[in-house]
Design a protein that fits this description.
Structural class: mainly beta
Strand content: over 45%
Strand order of the largest sheet: 2-5-6-7-8-9-10-11-12-13-14-15-16-17-18-19
Number of helices: 6
CATH architecture: Beta Barrel
Shape: globular
Order of helices and strands: HHHEEEEEEEEEEEEEEHEEEEHHE
Length: about 450
Amino acid sequence: MRVPAIICAAMALVFAIPAVALAQVLPVPAKQSEICKSDDDDDDDKPVPLWKRFAWEGACFEVSGELSIVYQKQKNSGSRIPILTTRQGGLTNASELGTFDASIRVDTTRKTSLGDLKTGFEVQYEKTTVDGGNGIATLIEGILTWSGFKGGYTDSQMNFWSGDFQFSATAPQRTVGLAGYEFKLNDAWTFTLAYETGLPTSQAGQSDFVTVYPKDPVASAKLYYEKDDTEFQLAGMVHDLRIDGTHPQLAFAGRPQAFDAFGWATTAGLTLPVKWGEDGSAFSMQATYAVNASPYLGTVADLSTLAGVVSVPVTTKGWSIVGSYHHVFSEHWEANAMTSYLALDLAMDRQSPSIRTNRYAANLIYKPDDKLRFGAEVGYVKADIDSGGPIGLLGLGLFNPVFFNNLLGSSIASAINTNLPLPGINKGQRGVNGSGLAGYLFATWSF
């Protein structure tokens, strides 16, 4: 069963706006002093520096960015495994890791008779103490929105929850090529239909666990509500999971050389402000169920875990839930706490392996001013993997030290207690479990 090709054709027609029509709706540029004027501007606010917001060629340009330094420390016992990760998803077996990140974003707004024509472009550079090179630059977003239309490289419609934590705390945070249209139902509700290319996420670009490529398109829909700091989202996606059968272990798993399967996922998210604490205190959560669409489950950290543990592309079924609380004590102090759970079952003809992960994290942040932040964080993870029998994933050779190294690959350090079974040895041992702890110190400056 394949996603209908008519979806792609419809999206192409939606975006086929003639150049003549575009020229007709673009008005004569306003006065320079009015181009960057916003309804949100407050006369009591400090004036924005000229280099951060300025008018050029009839459009308003706004520049922003962030510099951050993060120090990670792991504590483990037993076998040392490389589980500290960078923001780019790289693993290291070092007991300590330092990371420097710099990002810059340029947003533009041009007023037209059909509404504001907006663009956004953001890149990030990262250098770690273990990469031995010149660092890595990554495209985070390149997006255009106008009169309900949206297109570019941006967040999937399945994204919702995002926590203020140092590990990859976003769910699921897939970055994709997207073309869609947003219907504004009223002042609070919107409904969006989109075509997503399924490009690999910038955080997990090397993942081939139930892959979704441009040749394997995704159709998505999202119902979204936002009013008075309350947010609600209900979203879903469908795609055709295609596995080409080239992996040498697929035959052993009882799979044909090539096959496809219908995949889908649905997710719901909610953010609610609370009355205790200062303005900004809120609860947030997201729950997801997915069939043959595992990259949409859990947090980015969970996605990295799954991609590392199971390298053979197979059909799957699972669900995840993540929740967090953000508390603002005062103008200078705030804290965060989160927990998440993920359950994934792999469907193989000869065995039924399963993966379960629990994650917890908490931090305390000090802000001497609006631009500068210092913080300390602790994170804990527990993972249990059932091989599904004496063959299971063990028979596939997946639970060897190389793959188990990635079991807790989410910026969470580990203290492992495990009985790691090897293929053909002690059939009574059905799986492996582990738990880990990591600490973080960080400083961030925004501009």
